[in-house]
């Protein structure tokens, strides 16, 4: 992995994953997880068809070998081998011949984008169909067409993968990517590529929190994870859903349902202080798996980071969302913001000033420039005064950075110096999230298959 | 009643009520209530002079047969028969002759509006006087003037009327109009006309709340009602004081003292989403009977709806506030906003999502377009997602409409669909306001006279 | 004292105090307090070296008789007798000869303001040094220089003074000025001059609160007072740090750490309604002794009033902050705002309407213009309605003034009239701060020396 510029590697991964026919179940997801595992060891879970997960049931597993529509002359005019988008996702098997007039009811196009093939699925209502460009459809002559979908819908499994970066505490941060879309690059192969790099980068920082990376099919995958991890949910303190991470638009942060969760404040701080053009959106109950994490029963502090947001670009859910649509530079930029945000989140704690009555005498502890009165008051000393003044157990370091206008790094550095001088102690609530000796062993969990 | 356009009927009622000499007591109020009763059955209450009501005492009843000032030649130069505004309200009887110089102390004019007759009263300090145009006064020659006020101030009653539209719950909404002003059309005959139509319209909707329409003299009437209904006050959840409902200005909503009462939020929502030009005012302790309902001991969620607000137009409390000053169109517009506002208020409740962990599967309940991925996500489905996500017992349907930007009707429709699928239940607090079997019998109360 | 224009007297005091060599201890402070005592009787406290005060220790007492640097020809080229700023405050004694090259390490200048002498100190790290204009330094020839600082650093005392204006209650307002700066006029002789006039003015008003004026060295003086008055801190309800009170800039109010303390709201109200150009700053943990009063353990409602704020003008901490830099007019203006602010604070209380159900009948109590309907509703009557409506124990008179837009004086006057009619009573919480018979005897404390 090239630590200097992960861009080319991320883009190469997008290209490698692009041809696979993913869906919410099946071998396309399995193969995707195998490839991710080459970069980031995964625990892969297989959940049987029929398993009750919250209000849902794991559906039959779908696999597909081939599919086409052949014209009266026998030419494959719509061909799964050219693009897996050509088949309606979860199509039931079919092998028949019908006139074009009858076939039309099963054909999906985008009349206003006549060159593009749309992406369509029918997961829970049995159906079959093909997707094609309007221009292709318009050129089809009347006549009888051979229609073949060589798919299976049968008892099997739903498959998802996890990678855990163990931290000093068992409180968790979850980073989630959906892995159910077939040949769509921005939605969500770019998100997968960024998440892999992010996990590697965080592991190198000896993080405070335990970070859990989840690669699962959208909706049913998140619901399955939530159903199977009921006892773990209380540990999930923060989270981020990563999607559309590679297009050339500016970044968009969509808040958690809470709106003022710590992850919301961290992303806002990092995006605003970075000077990047960006958009901040309030929560809405549609989009990606933040819908599930932020359902009212869970109401987790999980936001969503994208570049151009969900359904916000004309290439969305079409054949134009191909590897050319995403850029290495954009993925690098998304990764950089993620790293900066988690660097803030990971250090953002509340402390209590142990000498809160008047200012403590910094000079006798070697923390103050003893020659008073210099006009060039130093940022580090200002940061110490701010941290001392606001460390009453109510204000986090991020609060202090925002209130003072000082960089978070300066504030965190001041807190470290003051901790070293015993002028601060961890806030009791934060200290309660104390390191669990068993935590480190979760690293053992990061490789293997469970079911 | 012409349901298609109630405008002409409302204007005709204003004209019919206009000549009556109303005051805070007396036969002018009684006759006004009799006429209202022709449209809307009233329970009329007679409260004896001397009755202690909160900090006040019901005053002597005032009636007047005639009044005039005759010039030295015997001509009635100020004549009650021409306009009841010419007599200072609650004038004690007088029959004397005095020079103009002495009479001037009893004459009230508007020097800056020299053609108009002002409206003046002296309810609680014994006095007599006449009101006239400055131009009339300026033309009076010196000399001795005959002065006659044929009035009585004697033990009697204060009279007010009520009409109740029974609802499914005993929680009440109060709509209040003052009926104490003599020949003033906008202040408040237009309010009376709108209230009558509003009561009729609400009765046709099988409302949730019980609606109480109060027609009472200003200040002392509201105080009397409050004093006599102490046990009922807790049921009054919302209210609206209607006045100045017919002038050609745009609508003005004055908030309750609370400022964020549900009625305040409903009126704000309806006025803003309707696109009408309008004004929103914070509460102030002067104006109409919201002063009493919003006194700190009651602090009810009662706002006030007018067109041009209290004392805000040059015709206010003058002879220019005549039937020509109010328009049928304006009254129809005021009525429409009232109807829309109460339609929102009446359906605005909080629910609890019964499947709050993750999204419930709408498809298996027939609530979701099964072919996922269509770019034309439907408003109804968005509304269901919003209602599910925010129905945690904290958010009302109005909250959800405002947060989502969806029309209240779409949100209320989604809630109905989800209730039908058992995905919502009423919020326990709202359910506590459960239908009282005795409520319907309050309809029996809507006709008759009590005292 | 000229009550008509205290400006000349304040400026004369600045000039009289200017030559004294003050520091955080020593005879310069003692002499300063003796002079203040001529205007305002002080209780002077002497706290021995070595006394532990919060996190600090009272340092050795510093006194200085003479100091100079003589050039090779024997001329005093840097001379304490010319300005006490020439010596680094708290310089240890020295009597030696050294070449200029070696001496430079002990010389402080302002290269960017080459004509000015900086003000520098080294209270807690033993050091010696001289301050001079860069131009003076540049003109010094090489050679050996005689260096003499005839100072003493020995066990002694820290000295501060207090003056108490007794009030009707023992709750206190503290007004604090630092007295540790040598020849600096705006910082803080102007503050001292204003505080003296303010104390005299408040004493003439029979105030509600007890006002404590503190004249103490910065930082260590405030810390010493806080340490020695632990039992009294709970009584300190409000406070103001006065500094930089005489420059020609506009006023600046810096909020307490709480940001919405009553003193913050009072100063904001007075500054905004006065129409003066002014600046409002949020709290920051640097500046004057608000740093100590607003440390998180105390978190008192203490703001700071200056003209141009701390370190905000080029003359700050230089020889240019001389008596010409402050004007009598500016000090008069600062004094006027202080007086107006304390006049509001002193009367700002919460009341409870004793007749909260409906409006009380003002007419029968002689509080209402009985002839209803006059269009020129009087401010006094509006103020009574506002006070009655909002006097629920939650709203102070300042709240009511701000909500109604009426002048504070009108609101306070209305409250007085309503109290006279028994329509208001003091809010129980405020009444709890009841007059303490012993309070008046605190006047006996205002003269004398303790240690």
Break the fold down into its secondary structure elements and pairings:
Three copies of one chain form a homotrimer.
Chain A: H1 7-17, H2 27-39, E1 43-48, E2 52-53, E3 56-57, E4 61-70, E5 76-79, E6 94-99, H3 100-103, E7 107-108, E8 130-131, H4 134-138, E9 144-154, E10 157-165, E11 172-178, H5 185-203, E12 210-216, H6 220-228, E13 236-242, E14 251-254, H7 262-274, E15 278-281, H8 290-293, E16 302-306, H9 328-347, E17 350-353, H10 379-390, E18 392-396, H11 397-404, H12 408-420, E19 424-426, H13 428-432, E20 448-450
Helix pairs in contact in A: 1-5, 1-9, 5-9, 7-9, 10-12, 11-12
What does this entry look like structurally?
3 copies of one chain form a homotrimer. In chain A, helix 1 (7-17) crosses helix 5 (185-203) and helix 7 (262-274) crosses helix 9 (328-347). Chain A is built from 13 helices and 20 strands. The first copy, chain A, is of the alpha/beta class. In chain A, strands 15-14-16-13-11-12-10-1-20 form a 9-stranded mixed beta sheet, sandwiched between helices. Chain A has a 4-stranded antiparallel beta sheet with strand order 5-4-9-6. Chain A has a 3-stranded antiparallel beta sheet with strand order 18-17-19. In chain A, a hairpin with a 5-residue loop joins strand 4 (61-70) and strand 5. The longest helix of chain A has 20 residues, at 328-347. Chain A has 3 domains: 7-59 and 157-347, Aminopeptidase; 64-152, Domain of unknown function DUF2172 (Glucose Oxidase, domain 1), CATH 3.50.30; 350-433, Arc Repressor Mutant, subunit A (Orthogonal Bundle), CATH 1.10.10.10. The A-C interface holds A 353, 355-361, 363-364, 370-375, 377, 382, 385-386, 388-392, 403-404 and C 54-56, 118-125, 127, 219, 222-223, 226-227, 257, 282, 284-286, 291-292, 294-299, 311, 316-317.
């Amino acid at each position: 992995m090239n630590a200097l510029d992960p861009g080319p590697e991320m883009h190469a991964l997008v290209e490698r994953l692009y041809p696979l026919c993913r869906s919410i179940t099946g071998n396309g997801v399995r193969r995707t997880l195998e490839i991710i595992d080459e970069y980031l060891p995964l625990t892969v879970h297989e959940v049987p068809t029929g398993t009750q997960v919250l209000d849902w049931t794991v559906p039959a597993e779908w696999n597909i070998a081939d599919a086409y529509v052949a014209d009266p002359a026998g030419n494959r005019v719509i061909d799964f081998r050219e693009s897996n988008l050509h088949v309606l996702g979860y199509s039931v098997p079919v092998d028949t011949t019908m006139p074009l007039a009858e076939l039309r009811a099963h054909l999906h196009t985008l009349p206003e984008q006549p060159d593009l093939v749309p992406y369509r699925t029918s997961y829970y209502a049995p159906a079959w169909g093909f997707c094609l460009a309007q221009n292709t459809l318009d050129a089809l002559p009347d006549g009888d067409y051979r229609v073949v979908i060589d798919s299976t819908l049968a008892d099997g499994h739903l498959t998802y993968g996890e990678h855990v970066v163990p931290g000093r505490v068992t409180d968790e941060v979850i980073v989630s990517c959906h892995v159910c879309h077939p040949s769509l690059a921005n939605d969500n192969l770019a998100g997968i590529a960024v998440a892999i790099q992010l996990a590697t980068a965080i592991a190198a920082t000896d993080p405070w929190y335990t970070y859990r990376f989840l690669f699962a099919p959208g909706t049913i995958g998140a619901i399955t994870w939530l159903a199977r991890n009921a006892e773990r949910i209380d540990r999930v303190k923060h989270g981020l859903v990563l999607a559309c991470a590679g297009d050339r638009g500016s970044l968009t942060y969509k808040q958690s349902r809470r709106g003022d969760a710590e992850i919301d404040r961290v992303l806002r701080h990092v995006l605003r202080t970075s000077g990047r053009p960006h958009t901040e959106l309030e929560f809405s109950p549609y989009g990606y798996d933040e819908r599930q994490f932020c359902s009212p029963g869970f109401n987790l502090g999980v936001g969503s980071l994208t570049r151009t947001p969900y359904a916000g670009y004309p290439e969305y859910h079409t054949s134009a969302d191909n590897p050319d649509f995403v850029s290495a530079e954009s993925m690098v930029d998304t990764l950089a913001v993620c790293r900066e945000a988690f660097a803030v989140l990971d250090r953002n704690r509340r402390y209590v000033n142990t000498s809160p009555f008047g200012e403590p005498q910094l000079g006798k502890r070697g923390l103050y420039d003893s020659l008073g009165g210099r006009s060039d008051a130093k940022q580090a000393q200002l940061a110490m005064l701010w941290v001392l003044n606001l460390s009453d157990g109510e204000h986090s370091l991020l609060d202090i950075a925002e209130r003072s206008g000082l960089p978070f790094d300066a504030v965190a550095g001041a807190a470290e110096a003051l901790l070293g001088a015993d002028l601060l102690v961890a806030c009791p609530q934060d200290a309660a999230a104390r390191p669990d000796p068993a935590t480190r062993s979760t690293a053992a969990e990061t490789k293997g298959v469970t079911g």
